[in-house]
Amino acid sequence: MPQENSVKLDITEALRYLGIPKEKQDAALLESARDVAERVRKAVTPRWLYRVYAVTPAEQGMMLTVPLAGGTAAAGRNPAPGGVLASGGTSAAAASSVTGLAAGNSAAAASSQTGLLLPGNSAAVMLKECSHAVLLIASLGAGFDALLRREQAQDMSRAVIMDACGSAFVEGACDRAEEELAARFPGKYLTDRFSPGYGDLPLGLQESLCRELDAYRRLGIAVSESMLMNPVKSVTAEIGISDRPQQARIRGCEYCSMKETCAFRKRGERCVS
Amino acid sequence: MSADFFGQKEIWILDGAMGTVLQQNGLPPGGQPELLNLENPELLKRVYRAYAEAGSDIVYSNTFGANGLKLKRTGHSVSEIVESAIRTAKEAVSELGVRVALDIGPLGELLEPMGSLTFERAYELFREMVQAGVSAGADLIAIETMSDLYEAKAALLAAKENSDLPVMVTMSVEANGRTFTGCTIPSMARTLEGLGADAVGLNCSLGPDTMVDMLAELARNTRLPVVAKPNAGLPDPMDGHYDMGPEAFADAIVENLPNGICIFGGCCGTNPEYIRQVSARLKGKKRAERVYDAVSFVCTAVDPLRLDGTKVIGERINPTGKKRFQQALLENDLDYILDVGIQEEDAGAEILDVNVGFPGVDEVEMLPRVVKKLQSAISLPLQLDSSNPKALEAGLRVYNGKAAVNSVNGNPEVMERILPIIKKYGAAVVGLTLDDTGIPQTAEARVAIAERILENALKYGIPKEDLWIDCLTLTVSAQQEQAAETLKAVYRVTHELGLKTVLGVSNISFGLPNRQLITQNFLIQALANGLSFPIINPNQKEMMDAVAAFRVLNQEDKECRAFIDRFAGAAAQNAPGGGAGGAAGSPAGAASSGAGGAASFSGKAVTPGQALDDAIMKGLRNEAGKIAVEALKTETELELVENHLIPALDKIGIDYEQGRAFLPQLLSAAQAAQAVFEVIRASIAGKGGEQVRKGRLIIATVKGDIHDIGKNIVKTVLENYGYEVLDLGRDVPPELILETAQKENIRLVGLSALMTTTLPAMEETIRLLQTLPEPPVTFVGGAVVTPEYAKHMGADYYAKDARESVEIARKVLG
Q: For residue B787, which of B192, B302, B683, B798 is within the disulfide window of CB 3.0 to 4.6 Å?
């Protein structure tokens, strides 16, 4: 699990999240934001994790299946699945009986025996030319929330700046993760990042996605019934991996991760002309 | 029953992963393993058996997530799943002499203050699991993979209060030695031992190699057996497989043996082969000697406080003699109390004394609320100060960490009431050297009472280091000879009994001029006689200066670093013209926010009123407060509000609307106004008059929504226009909003929602409010709310921002 202090926290971007365009970011505001950003950096370490899946088109979207590398690469280190129980014969029987169970268990939501379905047209378009896709999750952790709670008790003015810095910081963490991925796949091309809630990719996917990545155990992220992630500054994303150059498809508010909270949008304005 | 369960064997072997093995046998990703208890017990039996045959002395039942929250949508009850799991496990392994532990994992939602799941609800969810486990015959309880100490506490209390079974508690830490929620290893060890765990340890998240030093630290902080149940190394980011094979895992885990760790198992990525290897390497081994660090200690989850030197206990959270504080208590104004605590923390207090006893206040209800409020934003350990045992128990129950209690005394009845509570919650306790006959006049008699309290504490199983003695400060102007007796008693309790001492110092100077001089002198003498924890007002610079100097002379402040930090900057500033009067140079002063620029009050020839307008507009909090004090000499409280506060706020509000000012500036101005309001409130409270109020309203973030910063912005702005805001918080059920509106006869309700998924809850709240005979006016806002949607929901107003909510409040409440 990477822990990087080199993650970028873009102050100008943070102030833009607050609806303050770059040309109106005066010295006092920038100084205040730099101060807050420094405290956030000191107190918080962004974390992220990801897994790579094979992509296959399915009837209602794109199916992500268990990583190709996994079974074979890991077999040398861990005993292969068949060998974990007392004798080979019983484990084979066990495997088939679990399969039988899965078929009868519809509670497992979007995830099924074969993998995780990214339903809808948006995912299908994004991953059309991709052999693989990455599920990524990044978070500032509970430490940021604690810092923000205290700041809210003390100084709401700085608290709103801190909140925006948190958003910028977790975006920075996603950028770093993406750089890491680009380095892992030399010669391949990555699509834009997209998340549940983008286009027609349902927000309800958040839960199975977090469960798939074991986000609670590995990053301390819980998903509420209303599909909110907690700690608050947590982001999930999907990124496609392709052999061909990928056009930038994501443009405009519909695809922006800030669309739920953007101050420009609330005023009916846009952050870029 | 659980007295010495783990003493039955030198070394215990636990099982390995359940989830990993099930997935290797075909459990679908994202599937719920708990359902297998009903649908495929035969598979589970084979897993339990495989572990038993590999050498496990204890196997964990397949109930990690079998709690009421996670099972809600499965159509199965907790008791059904848990009982079946325990029965299956017992059938599989009991005949081999292997014990079955009821496995309890985290609930999957975050507890308050991080999430909205209350401590009490978490307790109920765990209780349900424990009761099912007990009735099905579990041999012990294993609480594991906890990252929130508060949640671990809820689970442990549920286990202890609803069973006689031994309980092990293990938490998960990251490579930095803290859990995801920031809990430290000493905090978990000391808190969980205090609450009566039978074994503590670490599981999951790290490999056995990275855990060695952390487990050694854990072992130094507890007398309990220590558990190591690590993962099979770290997962590969590409495919999620763990990188350590059984041999390497076993080699690494036995490295813990010399540190006295005696309970071993595996977590994610392990399987029976790992356990076989571990078991083989540990065969015939004995527990190594342990050294326990028997130091006085209190903590919160994130702030472990080893009490090995002088520590300052802040005395300000106390209504005695403080009109404004009393008013806050009577009005349920917990924000004010939190603010007092934050100021103490900023001023350098290390423990906060918390006293909320006042006529008209129900302490049993108030103390836990204040504890929760303080712990939502302050990381310092607390000392709960009350003579009401019920209030103390209620406060200790919801406290996250190891607290101190103030106080018990030599009266046998008091000891009998208080000490069992101290023992149950693992707190430290202050013993006052008085009894039913009063305060003894000699040091000898006070030391004798201290001895008696110590004897009793030990009898109840409270360790010596958890008893601190207060030798009592008497007012020197009334009983002059007593100061020396107190100091003598401090010396003897410290050096002869070997106990830590506390002393409320300020009382010494009551009734004298230049009180601070006497108090400071007495403080220094008491410290020199061995006083460990002075209870003082940390906002008084003279007191904190004295403590800083003492720490240098007593070799606590190594290389005088803290002292230099404290004074190096101040010396340059204060050089000309001698000491600045009052709080100007105090490090305790709240930092002013927002833009720089000095106040113009003394600069130009302006009236205090004009200077006030200017300070508010510029968001100069400290200046605004000071100028308000001046301005009150020429204007009434109400005039100040009507002529200056509100016009200044309106002006910045218009700038905000027109894009000349932005949210941070708007809020800075609101906070400067708040400082003025604070002066006005104090002034009115001092005279006992009616407070300036423009009307009351409710605001809340709707059910399901945990993003509350938008709501808090609205609250800040509205309050500083003089409205009384009943803030119901976040994730608020529609029923609670209805009930409050009805009970408090509220005419205006503001609702906030940030996500599309929570809009239905907003609509439901409005619908419910409209069932009232005289429904209150509603206004809604938040990122996803639009004017159209507001109308569709039946809201009376849509507020696009905090500024607009003021206009709405004006229309509705005046």
A: B798
